[in-house]
Specification:
Radius of gyration: 22 Å
Number of domains: 1
Shape: globular
Structural class: mainly alpha
Length: 368
């Protein structure tokens, strides 16, 4: 491509049109995984995981492992293998929603009163599920189409939290504790509604409206979805969205499984016994872990189920806080809506998620 000279004469109309129709390199590069992490890193992690599974074959182990290392490998592989089918299903559903569903459909079904729009859009997210990384650009698109910021932000939180795939995976992961699935749904719904209502009361919509326009040079990452007006065939956009989501979420899943296995194997059991005797400390610790691990909501239930030494309420806090407040979402929201909005909004979300999950946990499980 001919380099663009800033000081040169204006381009001819046909040249300008040719350049404007070409894909932007920065936009494409942002669809290749998590911000700041190259695609080869995720590919290398996947290859290493496959090699580890092969090495641990019972019939012909390549590298026999003993003791703590063997237990760590077994726990890590079990978490990944159990989570992967739900992760793939969630990615496919999310890509279908973000590429095939018209964004204006929510405007037609939402009530006009802003107070009722927040719970309505939260319930609508059950039928329009998505993952965390696709919910942010979808919320931005809804705002640009006239949906109120509180309702769009409610959808952004509810889409990964109230996802039917998430509830099913939770029921499978907690087969011995069936209350956890509907407790998660109830706590997540309450957390989303309370956060949306708090934003209506103390939020500043001017911070939200300062977000970049869709498709503008300052536009933020979207999970494989093209900018507004993109003429790329839907099938291609679907493949891009699913691939980008899988690379990103799969990488976080492997890292989260490794950390969860490390906690399970390396941390002395007496620490968990002491932690269980201080429920508030366990709740806060699991909330921090949910933020740091940044797991995909379709797979986090299996990691939470591995923390068997803590109370079900602490596990519920992990499941509710993670999909609405983690490092990955912080980075995406800062890039989309700006830092000032992100810190104010996420502070409301964090308080709402922590309190709602704790209250529901106490009611359902009868203890902290």
């Amino acid at each position: 491509m001919t380099p663009l000279h800033i000081t040169g004469p204006p381009a001819a109309p046909q040249d300008a049109h040719r350049r404007s129709s070409a894909p932007l390199t920065p936009t494409r590069s942002r669809h290749r995984g998590s911000p700041g992490v190259p695609r080869w890193a995720w590919l290398l992690g996947g290859i290493l995981l496959v090699l580890l599974v092969w090495a641990q074959s019972r019939t012909a182990p390549l590298v026999p492992l003993r003791g703590t290392l063997s237990a760590w490998a077994v726990v890590m592989i079990a978490i990944v293998v159990q989570s992967l089918p739900f992760l793939v299903l969630g990615v496919l559903v999310s890509a279908s929603i973000s590429t095939l569903l018209p964004a204006h459909i929510l405007q037609r079904i939402l009530p006009r009163h802003p107070l009722w729009r927040v719970p309505a859009v939260s319930l609508a997210a059950v039928a329009l599920p998505g993952c965390e990384c696709s919910a942010v650009p979808v919320a931005r698109s809804l705002m640009h189409r006239g949906v109120s910021p509180a309702a769009a932000l409610g959808f952004m939180l509810a889409s990964p939290s109230l996802n039917p795939v998430v509830i099913v995976s939770t029921a499978v992961a907690f087969a011995d504790l069936p209350q956890m699935a509907w407790a998660r749904f109830a706590a997540a719904f309450l957390a989303v509604v309370v956060a949306g209502w708090l934003w209506l009361i103390v939020g500043d919509d001017r911070l939200v409206r300062g977000a970049h326009e869709a498709g503008a040079p300052g536009g933020t990452v979207s999970c494989g979805c093209g900018p507004a007006g993109d003429t790329t065939p839907r099938r291609v956009r679907f493949v891009r969205a699913a691939t980008a989501d899988l690379y990103q979420a799969g990488g976080f899943l492997v890292v989260g499984a490794m950390l969860a296995a490390s906690v399970k194997v390396l941390v002395p059991a007496r620490w968990f016994v002491e932690l269980a005797q201080q429920p508030w400390l366990a709740i806060l610790l699991l909330a921090v872990l949910a933020i740091v691990l940044a797991l995909c909501s379709e797979a986090d239930a299996f990691v939470a189920a591995s923390f068997t030494a803590v109370s079900p309420t602490a596990q519920l806090v992990f499941l509710v806080v993670g999909p609405v407040l983690d490092i990955k979402l912080m980075a995406m929201q800062v890039g989309t809506f700006g830092a000032r909005f992100t810190w104010r909004f996420l502070s409301l979300v964090g308080v709402s998620a922590l309190l709602c999950a704790t209250c529901v946990g106490v009611i359902v499980f009868g203890a902290w």
